[in-house]
Amino acid sequence: MKILKNLVYHRRRTWIIGAGIVAVLLLVAYTGYSLSSWRTLDKQTSDWQQSTRRLLDTMGSAKAGTAAEKTASIERLRAVTTEIEKSRARLCDVPGLISWQTAAESAKRTLRDCQKVARSGELLKLSLEKLGKYLESEAAVARILESPGLLTDTADEKTWEATSNEWNGAAIAIKALKVDMVFKVTQAAALSAVNELDSAWQELLVAHKAQNKTQFTSAKGRVEKAYAGLVALNDTNDHEFQLLITEANTRYTAALSS
């Protein structure tokens, strides 16, 4: 009987020791998992912030090129905006096994920093959408102004009437464009520049048909000056786009420091 009691005792003791070892191992594993999870969250927050920062820094080059290149930039921008929103939505997810640890100050700070970056990402998404709307309108104007018929030199009188008609059509097309509010200033500048070319070409045709040399010389100078006005349109376009970039940077930085 005594032997049986000893056997039971030893088995129970062995089980308790084994359970204790397992518990210690589980605790060590859980501690390692916790530390790794919080470090991962901290690192992915930092990496995400840096990648979005770089994206914003490169947005200034998105508007360069032809209408076709602008359209390609818009498609890339849409894809990036979608990806940012997807990654932002799950950026600060905390595994259920360690979610209770957010009561601790260090974990709370890590999560708070991540949520701050995520909020900046939401503002970045809105800024990118606004930039996308601007680029869409800009590409629409570019497609109109890239018509070969608008590039005729005043030296070839055989094309004057066709060119005049082209500029008149361009003025009508730009005025009819339905653009977002972010592009209204640039649209007005484009319409002003194109209207001036339309009017100058019509004046040149009238002078040519009337064989009025003085009026013709004046009109020819006006046409050449009007073409130079397209450079001012580019300046306005660059300025308005840069304002959007600056606004995006300001809102993004403010969100991170709030």
Short description:
The protein is mostly helical and 258 residues long. It has 2 domains: 140 residues; 102 residues. It is built from 6 helices and no strands.
Provide keyphrases for this structure.
258 residues; mainly alpha; 81% helix; 0% strand; rod-shaped
Kindly describe this structure.
The structure is a single chain. By secondary structure, the protein is mostly helical. The model is unreliable at 4-10 (pLDDT under 50). The chain contains six helices and no strands. The protein starts with a helix and ends with a helix. 81% of the residues lie in helices and 0% in strands. The protein folds into two domains: 2-141; 156-257.
SSE topology sketch:
Blueprint: H1 2-57, H2 67-89, H3 105-145, H4 160-176, H5 184-210, H6 213-257
Helix pairs in contact: 1-3, 2-3, 3-6, 4-5, 5-6
Q: How far apart lie the N and C ends? A: 75 Å
Helical stretch tally: 6
> What class would the helix/strand composition place it in?
mainly alpha
Q: Order of SSEs, N→C?
A: HHHHHH
Taken together, the total number of domains comes to 2
Largest sheet: none
Residue share in helix: over 70%
Beta-strand content estimate: under 5%
Shape from CA axes? rod-shaped
For the secondary structure, the number of strands is 0
Q: What integer value in Å does the Rg equal?
A: 33 Å
Give the integer mean of the pLDDT values: 78
Flag low-confidence runs. 4-10
